[in-house]
Design goal:
disordered N terminus, alpha/beta, homodimer, 7-stranded mixed beta sheet
């Protein structure tokens, strides 16, 4: 995920065609490999990508290997948007924030005088096209600040339970990647500790990460707003306040890893330029570590985008991959199945 | 630990009597309770304090109990200074920072022109008495900023391996509390996840917490300076920069808990006013939770201090304890042994 190039992104929500759910691809669901092979990464096609993962795990877990790593140091970090779940046509958190603006609009008549809130409420596509990063922060501030964490968590839970994706028509948590779920389990079965390190706000990710990814809240690192603690009529209360404490993106990701995890990972998995520094820090090429880049090259089952995309732009990290020895995952070629549901590709 | 009242604290380093190691108290080491009882909290005397801990753990771990808590929600948070290890005559991190000033003084002749650095270098007790919070930040900045995290970690490791405590003459990591080590183990044996939530800088705590407390770096929350990531001649490097990102003390502790852990604990253990808000947040009195306050009332084996102390001041939290139902631990009466070593009380 990459947050710097959101200039035109927010406007795209207005342009998103809804309900254009693609025809089911029947190629994936029933594929099984030879019965003899263990169910390790079953949704991954055999080939150099899958092999590089299995080889790495074997190397660091075999006590006889010169590259053996003790379990406590087997830290694996995963970007979230576009890496564990989809991020098109817009980061799902941004869709949430835009829904919040619309839901709250009646209580805030003054928003009709304030850009970009007016543009969102009135679905003014021309004005939305001029939304920049600063305006996005304004949207988040206007909709999140002042909420207690319990109120915020309840709103997020409600949204995740009811909102549906414009293309696939399913709840957003169904748009997680089956092969990545298998990779997370495979690593944990090999005594890795799996973390999310996301540019997105950590509160929303934590609300579903344990249920969906098997990753508990304390292993979710992300961007964070400021919080304030007070006794409100004697009740201890944490309230979101305006202000950003930390942006866990790009050069912020290694900082977040040091601050929240305190160990250097041996596996980093990302999909965009926002993950470049996390990949450099984890797998510079001269230590025992694995860097993974998910390349969205599957326009049929998911989306195909990289260098020219406003969401999840990928060029620098892709160019640096050969030099640093990172493994590039082709969604199209390396994955038998994209999403868990039999109803989805 | 409480950081707000450090006004006169730093000066005390010059006043500290060295080597006044107390006579060994022979009362503790050999006490064993009835052979029939399991080795749960063996260094704790039988009585209402110990019983309140055991009763709480039984309540939340018995699936038949109405207060049963699922293992993933069994989060326990511990203050560090004065709670897991000693904090007299000064916070050990402050002793470290003062040692750093002295060690670096020859390379920084300009420090002899700059208060409070000059006062520290020249052991000017009169000037040291005027050191306030702002000056303390200056000390940390001057000694830590510009170091890479690898350099900093190496300096901390060296200091912890070689520096000794002025009263007890042992490395600081020997001044951890044996009963608290047992409490940490007891909780983990009951599927609690144990965290440190300290006002101190998290980097130093992480350097010994796993070895000494069995708490891995990713479960240490603390105050944090700013960090910067860059490729230095191609090498990914994190460097400490001037600036404080987060002060994990007082009202900052519940914020740190939400930000780093993302769940509300069911057990909080502290020893000073700096822990008041963490205790309020965890154990307000109307939910299943245990609040523990360690009262330093053992001037013979350790130190006796509370309301009048500049280090670890304890008054508000002590006064609120009965109303909120917190358990106050008397070091003198509830602990058979203070430190792990047979050579120490």
């Amino acid at each position: 995920m990459r947050y710097m190039s959101l200039v035109v992104v927010a406007s795209a929500v207005a342009l998103t065609a809804c309900g254009d759910r693609p025809a089911q691809t029947s190629s994936a669901a029933d594929q099984t490999t030879a019965a003899a092979s263990a169910p390790v990464l079953p949704s991954w096609n055999e080939g150099p990508t899958r092999q590089s993962i299995v080889d790495f795990v074997d190397r660091v877990t075999d006590p006889a290997s010169p590259d053996y790593v003790t379990p406590s140091e087997r830290i694996a970090v995963f970007d979230n948007d576009g890496n564990l779940w989809a991020e098109q046509p817009l980061y799902f958190q941004l869709l949430f924030a835009l829904d919040r603006v619309r839901a709250m609009a009646d209580d805030h008549p003054e928003w009709r005088e304030t850009e970009p809130l007016r543009a969102i409420i009135e679905d003014d596509r021309g004005a939305l096209a001029s939304i920049g990063e600063h305006e996005l922060v304004e949207i988040v501030m206007a909709t999140h600040a002042g909420l207690t964490i319990d109120e915020f968590d309840a709103i997020v839970a409600e949204w995740l339970a009811t909102a549906t994706h414009p293309r696939f028509g399913v709840p957003f948590t169904e748009l997680v990647y089956q092969p990545m779920l298998e990779l997370l389990s495979y690593l944990r079965n090999n005594e890795f500790k799996t973390f999310i390190v996301s540019g997105g706000g950590m509160d929303m990710i934590r609300s579903f990460a344990e249920r969906v990814y098997g990753i508990p809240p304390e292993q979710v690192v992300g961007s964070a707003g400021e919080l304030e603690f007070a006794l409100v009529e004697g009740v201890p209360t944490l309230t979101k306040t305006p202000g950003i404490n930390f942006v866990d993106d790009k050069a912020g990701k290694p900082v977040g890893i040091r601050r929240f995890i305190g160990r250097r990972p041996i596996l980093a998995s990302g999909n965009s330029n926002g993950d470049l520094q996390m990949l450099q820090y984890t797998a510079p090429g001269d230590r025992v570590a694995l860097g993974l880049i998910l390349h969205h090259d599957d326009g049929e089952r998911e989306w195909a985008y990289d260098r020219a995309s406003h969401v999840g732009r990928l060029d620098a990290a892709l160019e640096e991959a050969p030099e640093r020895g990172w493994t590039v995952i082709s969604m199209k070629n390396d994955w038998k199945k994209v999403f868990p549901s039999p109803e989805l590709p």
